[in-house]
# Entry
Amino acid sequence: MVRKHPKEVLIAIGARFAEGGNYYIFTVFILTYLSEQLDLSRQVGLTGVMIAAAVDIAVIPLWGALSDRVGRRPVFIGGALFMAAFAGPFFLMVDTRSPVLICLALVLMMALGHGAVFGPLAAFYAELFPARVRYSGVSVGYQAGSVVLGGFTPMLATSVVLWSGGASWSLMALVAAGALIAAATMAVAPETFRRSLDAEAGAAARDGAVSREAVTTPT
# Structure
């Protein structure tokens, strides 16, 4: 898989910068930011994240269904670009310390940003790799992104806040950078939503049958 499909592996990892990396800023780091940096009750963040997550759950299938109609790339890229553009307004709304605006910012970011990049992702991964290496490719691409981005993004966000003296522009730049990396990755990726996995499986089965026949046929 690594030898024959390195581009697909890198695409799978790069696509997670918007969904995997930024997701932990909106759901994990934001709790610390609200309580430690803005001196708000932790309940404000927990309530906002729970409401935003519930809305996200509802819209993810809709984004996935849309990607079945128009393609994985336009839906994903649109969500990633929204995430990058909304990074500034998001933290400006959060910095007001208004629970209503904080909740609204989380809902908009999760529903229109995260939902759009996460909805098509599973199908895109399955269509990206050929059947012989599909499980390995999806696993390596997704889990490598989880380890690197999920593990280090909250720490990186804390570091940039300390480095910038608590200025939220550093977080805006971090979120926008992750989203743009993912958008650029998907821009160079192939469109996969018309790829027939059944036809591919049939071809693989025929190739396997031919190989077995060649091995067992006496010379």
In short: The CA atoms of residues 131 and 200 lie 7 Å apart. The radius of gyration is 20 Å. Residues 134-163 form the longest helix (30 residues). DSSP finds nine helices and no strands in the chain.
